[in-house]
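Supplementary Methods S3. Complex input for the adenosine-5'-triphosphate-bound model.
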Amino acid sequence: MLHRRTAETEPSAPPGPENHLRVEGISKRFGHFKALDDVSFTLGRGELLCILGPSGCGKTTLLRAVAGLDRQDAGSVLLDGRDVSLLPVSRRHVGIVFQSYALFPNLTAAQNIAYGLQTRGMPRSRVKDRVEELLALVGLQGQDRKFPSQLSGGQQQRVALARAIAPSPSLLLLDEPLSALDAQVRSRLRMEIRSLQQRLGVTTLMVTHDQEEALAMADRILVMDRGRALQAGTPDEIYNSPGCPFVASFIGSMNFIRDTVKESPRTFRKGSLRLLVEDSGPMPDGAAAILAIRPEDIEIRQNGEPSRNLLKAEVQRLEYRGSNFRVAMSLLIEDSEASLIEADVTAEKVRKLRICEKTRIHVDLPTHRLLVYAA
Ligand SMILES: Nc1ncnc2c1ncn2[C@@H]1O[C@H](COP(=O)(O)OP(=O)(O)OP(=O)(O)O)[C@@H](O)[C@H]1O
Ligand SMILES: [Mg+2]
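Predicted complex, serialized as structure tokens:
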């Protein structure tokens, strides 16, 4: 697979009226600091989009602009084709769940969930039924009279979720709803949230900096860095066709072979090494490039096995990971500094080929798995 795409933010956006939410060119400054820089994306009806990026890249700022909690400096937010950019949060019909549960400590679980329904004027008897229905929906039957301090972190976040979906919002906004929970609760709750979201069909925007969470839950992922939207796509597109080195390295593990030069339409040179790729796109011959490949795509070869990109390498380190080993090795390239790369090798193969530190092995970098980026 080849990647020469420039940063693209909408390779798979559903067209027209299917776009429930459309964010167009949002920018936001805090003093001289640009927290959001011309961010655009769309969200289809019933879709779950994860905004993924490192700490401080502007995820919460973007979510708050969509919610109407903070006003952007430029750009617009359209819900169902209607420009809501100037409307306050109370008139956007959104449900919000924050990282810190943000429940009212002096209200019980049931009262917390009922709060938004009562302020919207729902009759008491209907509120009671709706709260019971919601408690069951988030798996909290029988916990209605407990106060937040009497509930675990996971249970508090279920209450927060029930409270957010109680008035059947048009859009559900989740800002790192799971990050305060321990790993086990987190992975269970993420599956529950996803299945609830699908059952209700509620259009959802969820912020996370956890790539595993994004890959597991999202219909599509928007990757951000330093206030900019770098790429949007399905988890499969983001993982297998990252549009730039940042996306490639932020999601999963990636090896980079730097300082290569394009020699001909399909070959790249680094010192004495020649690497063949499937297609290098419009990059001119002589251009500086970075090649990239994931550890699971590198294959260990026994002598004599045919291969297009067969390289010699010396094993530096093995790390046991249960089902496989992560093997760090330096590529032995004449007239060039050694490149260190990592490959995932099955435990069986490590034993069979007696791979250990300082062993010299052959590796194949399959042509169709090499990604190409302009340096
Ligand atoms: N009210 C504010 N005043 C000044 N700077 C702010 C304000 N809010 C956010 N920032 C800055 O804007 C940038 C983006 O912040 P934001 O909270 O959106 O990041 P984030 O991606 O949500 O990070 P995290 O993953 O840590 O929650 C940060 O550098 C932050 O310091
Ligand atoms: Mg944040």
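Residues 16-249 form a domain with the Rossmann fold fold (CATH 3.40.50.300). The longest strand covers residues 19-30.
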